[in-house]
Amino acid sequence: MASEVNGILVAAHELKAPLSLMRQLALNMQCTEDTNTQDRLCDQLVNVSERALLQVNDLTKIARLEDGLFAMEPVSVRGICETVARDVGSLFGFDRKALAIEYKNRQRLVVANSELLYSVIYNFCTNAMHYSANNTTSLMTVSDENEHIRVNVRDYGPTLPISIWRDLNRGNLKQPTHISMRPGSSGLGLYIASQFAGYMHATLGAVRHRDGTSFFVELPVSGQACLF
Which of 129, 192, 201, 216 is placed for a possible disulfide with 152 were both Cys, Cβ 3.0 to 4.6 Å? Predict the structure, then answer.
């Protein structure tokens, strides 16, 4: 019971952050008469709200995983990665950051659910955006790993604590967990990614670096033609 309450508190805390930011952006809009500044603040407000809504929607999807509503099918990995990169591009741009994609895979299709895979990669990318310094470029790499395809996103924030790293690599991240060195979206985002990866029978993991962390998901290659 105590662990469930802690998970709820972590989720509430991380969802509170974008609401506070939206409030501050709205107040800033009221305090300026410069049209360009108002437009920029408005764009930020929309992007922050969309990101918060996506996390709320992801949490509701977790509650519905047991219903088997998310069909597994052949999915184009590159297509999902390109969509995510397009959707997070403006978030990176606000703080003069960038996201690059490097394709090393010959296999193109995996067995997955497109909605859930999108959310996994999106959470990796928003973490990279949140923790990278200004004027830096985060890297998403797509590569073949035997009969799997790995999507890896490198960020340059504080390294992941060993306990969280072990739980993530063992598939034991069962609830949102507070990560003191990485406040913001890591705890909730990694929990969402872990739940979705488990549903898709994918492998979720992380590599610790001296100057950050790489998060990855590995999915089995599909030999079928993609119909979607």
Answer: 216
Q: Tell me the residue type at 171.
A: G
> What's the pTM value of the predicted model, to 2 decimals?
0.82
Cα separation of 35 and 189, whole Å?
Answer: 34
Evaluate whether 189 touches 126 at the Cβ level (below 8 Å).
Answer: yes
Measured in whole angstroms, how far is the alpha carbon of residue 93 from the centre of its chain?
17
Count the Cβ atoms, other than its own, within 10 Å of residue 104: 11
**145-155 pLDDT tens trace:** 989 999 999 98
Residues facing residue 174 across a β-bridge: none
Please report the sign of the dihedral spanned by the C-alpha atoms of residue 57, residue 58, residue 63, residue 68.
positive
Q: In sequence order, what DSSP letters do the residues of the chain get, joined into one string?
A: -HHHHHHHHHHHHHHHHHHHHHHHHHHHHHT---HHHHHHHHHHHHHHHHHHHHHHHHHHHHHHGGGT-S--EEEEHHHHHHHHHHHHHHHHHHTT-EEEEEE--S--EEEE-HHHHHHHHHHHHHHHHHHSPTT-EEEEEEEEETTEEEEEEEE-SSPPPHHHHHHHHHT---S----TTSTTTHHHHHHHHHHHHHHTT-EEEEEEETTEEEEEEEEEBP-SPP--
Residue 111 phi, psi dihedral angles, 5° rounding: -90, 115
Of the candidates 206, 204, 205, 202, which has an alpha carbon nearest to the alpha carbon of residue 220? Answer: 202
| Separation between Cα atoms, residue 149 and residue 216, nearest integer Å | 10
Q: For all residues of the chain together, what is the average pLDDT? A: 82
